[in-house]
Design a protein that fits this description.
By secondary structure, this protein is an alpha+beta fold. It is built from 7 helices and 9 strands. The chain has 2 domains: about 150 residues, 60s Ribosomal Protein L30, Chain: A; about 40 residues, Wheat Germ Agglutinin (Isolectin 2), domain 1 (2-Layer Sandwich). The model has no long low-confidence stretch (mean pLDDT about 90).
């Protein structure tokens, strides 16, 4: 990797805590998106990311793009898909990336080693081989042609509005504060979602 790429990789690893293929996928997705959607340094919150999984890749996307949950320009959809959509609010251009190649297809033996490592049954040599293969797969992902790694397409979607700041109300059951737009009404009182009793005919 070039010096600048090494620097980016190091920042992502420092934030995420370890190197893995998921991080490499997030780095590539974020770099492709910023390269194709941003001509110069983006205005804060101008770029919006919609991610369809909660894997390691999302940490890399946060570091490289600056999109975060706290700023409201990182939106999580729990679909379990390696799909990443990026929107430039200024231009309206929207880029959707979907992973073409499963990690296990890059290295078919990796799945067996991962199962051993996560089950606690791996021998020391298995652990070493698992770490080596993780690094090898990550390197392949980082150097793979972008259109081989991802299906890349410009799409038209309704652009989500910017994050709003809401007031808080106190839950009548637990007494904790909850954002008013997330509160529920039960017996004419505000309650938080964990305290809310869903209506049921059963």
């Amino acid at each position: 990797m070039a010096s600048e790429e090494n620097d980016i990789f190091s920042k992502v690893i420092e934030f995420h805590g370890h190197s893995c293929p998921g991080v490499a996928i997030g780095i590539r997705a974020a770099e492709i998106a910023t390269d194709k959607l941003i001509s110069s340094r983006a205005v804060d919150e101008e770029l919006l990311a919609i991610v369809e999984n909660d894997s390691c890749s999302v940490d890399a996307i946060q570091v490289i793009t600056g999109c975060t949950f706290g700023k409201g320009n990182l939106i999580f959809k729990d679909y379990g898909k390696n799909v990443y959509t990026f929107i430039n609010r200024g231009t309206g251009k929207t880029l959707r990336l979907s992973l073409n190649i499963p990690i296990d297809e890059i290295d078919p033996e990796f799945a067996n080693l991962r199962t051993k490592a996560f089950s606690g049954e791996a021998k020391p040599e298995d652990e070493m081989e698992f770490e080596k293969r993780k690094d090898d797969i990550s390197e392949k992902i980082l150097s793979m042609p972008e259109d081989e790694l991802f299906k890349i397409e410009y799409v038209d979607i309704e652009i989500p509005g910017k994050a709003q700041i809401f007031g808080s109300v106190k839950c009548s059951k637990c007494g904790e504060l909850v954002a008013e737009h997330r509160a529920r009404v039960e017996n004419s009182d505000f309650v938080c979602i964990p305290c809310f009793e869903d209506y049921s005919r059963n």
